[in-house]
Amino acid sequence: MNKLPMHNALQPLAWLEGIWRTESLGAGKFPTISPFKYCEEIIFSSIGQPMLNYTAQSWHPDKKVPMHREVGFLKIVPSTCKVSLFVAHNFGLTTIEEGEVTNQELCLSSTSVTRKEEGSKPPAVLQIKRVFKLVDEALHQTLYMATENTPEITEHLHAVYKKQESSLCG
Question: What does pTM read for this prediction?
Fold first, then answer.
């Protein structure tokens, strides 16, 4: 497949494009669970439209089994710094997260969180906030969430990624 040129509207997000993988373990925590470690790969890819395709896949560092997967689209309002991330999670959650990109930092907060009720385990996620920031060629991501049991927005995940030449997941 030929690589299409990035849409001009995406220039404020151009620093995100590529394959990013944790080189050291990501850290997960939340008041209601035991802390854990994980590996993850994130792909932001351009298809020539004013959006980036988004995929994130995490796996257990020792067992090498999948832990979480999410897919979506990162859209920008042309000629602005306003962005939206539409995400479907593999456990039945969908989110719309909105925010802004400034310099090499992307801050997003959920404006919509829905989940499949039947078969979903509690507690329900009520809110998501995530920050991507490029620091010295390393991509940092911190994800915060609130649930029905922990209603105050609380840090849940933090990982640092390095840009890769090829994908492990593809």
Answer: 0.93
